[in-house]
Amino acid sequence: MAAKVRKKSAKSKRPTAHPPEIQAALNLAITCHEQGNLVTAERIYRDILRQKPSCAQALHMLGVVASQTGHFEEASELISKALQLAPDDQNAHFNLAVCLQHLGNLQQAERHYRTTLKLAPKRNDARANLAIVLRDLDRLDEAITLLRKAVEQEPDHPELLNNLATLVKTRGDFEDSIPIYRKALAITPEDAELHFNLAGSLLVTGKLEPGWREYSWRWRSQAFMAANPVRPVPYPMWQGENLAGKRLFIRREQGIGDEIMFATCLPDLMAVARHCTVECDPRLSGLLRRSFPGIHICTANDPLPAKTDIDLALFAGDLPSLFRTNLQHFPTPSPRLMVDPKLAEQIDRQLATLVAKDKPLIGLSWRGGREPRVRATRSIPLSQWAPLLKGFEAHWINLQYGDCQAELEASGLPIVQLPGIDPMADLESFAALVQRLDLVISIDNSTVHLSGAVGTPCWVLLPKAHDWRWFSPLETSPWYDSLRLFRRSSQYASPSSLFCTISQALTRFFPTPVSRKN
């Protein structure tokens, strides 16, 4: 659900001020380039530069070829040389800005986009890309103002409308993004990316029934499918038929947290279907088998059931469209995943050797998100948790997955690490640990889903522009009754105020000394 960088311009004016043989070669190279024959175009550009190293157009267009093939460092060097020779070439400024944006050199990208607009004030491709640069520089209000100006110039441009709506949503103005997405869809009604983006805005604002309809477009979105590969199945896919009495295959999708969240719909499905086979990440198989003994669990590594044993297949993410069409349809208490009791006992013994029973056990997780920008928005660096951890007496237990040892050592904070538990590889042991804690405090990642699923109280620290599943402005989660949601007051508010609120809540949550669960 991201705004898009508009494509690089490979356009160049036909050369007119060169010797005839250079001009003919440039004409041929540009024709090959425009036809997509990059290999031939590159060869001719290089031939031209051997004859005339100061040919700005050949340098520029060779840089565009490098950019189109993902060689952004080389491209930026070539186009920079071209600009030294032709400093007023708007296309060269634009293409250099795109390269710099890909390389993460945002300040220089901003400078060249602004130069492009100075030379060509009506270039909304430059305006759209500059807006994304400003967003990534945490200047979101500027970015939105810039895109509104672009939309004023091209009010029926669906890509500009999509980018504007997405930035408005990124600011946390979810309701305001909806009519902008709808306007774009009125122009391009079959655009799957727009439908999927609109789904997020509808769902987060509690408009679940229309939101799920739009969410079904995710499997037509090229970006979504590229980020969420699934294995093919030989069964007919569900097209809205009645599922009563059917033998169903539920296809896994997205990440561990999504699988856990969608699994809360399985009791509803079991009540109507004749038989259910649920595909899952292998790491979840034990938890699901123990929790849903009436369901056949098939991991992503297992052979698929025979075609004759399945009537219909549907994705796990389609289940809420059947059973969660408004906020009143979420069950209370929420369904639970059952941890392995032997592992729970083992965790108890480990904890007994590491910490005393004089303080509450509080799990901690501070980063998450698969995409870099999502990770940056959700995560709170461990160093910023210091006032909370130092100000409240507890045994703080590390629940952060991934390589975090350097962060732990650098922080100097009193965080307990249980040996032998890898949250990425061993979800059974990790679930048992989470279940034995008195509280979990975490940013939005799979740990909060696991905490909610095993019934451990969990406080989720959300950015203002949070994911759709946390339904603004609720303070609790319909998916999991043990979760409490803490939202930042603004997209760029310091976590310090949030941690002050958390500290006060901890004092109320643990008014007297507590003993551990075991």
UniProtKB/TrEMBL annotation:
Residues 1-16 have a biased composition (Basic residues). Residues 1-20 are annotated as: Disordered. TPR repeats lie at residues 56-89, 90-123, 124-157, 158-191. GO terms for molecular function: identical protein binding. The keyword Transferase does not apply. It holds the Pfam family TPR_4. Keywords: TPR repeat. InterPro entries: TMTC_O-mannosyl-trnsfr, TPR-4, TPR-like_helical_dom_sf, TPR_rpt. PANTHER family: PROTEIN O-MANNOSYL-TRANSFERASE TMTC1, PTHR44809. This is Tetratricopeptide repeat protein. It comes from Geothermobacter ehrlichii.
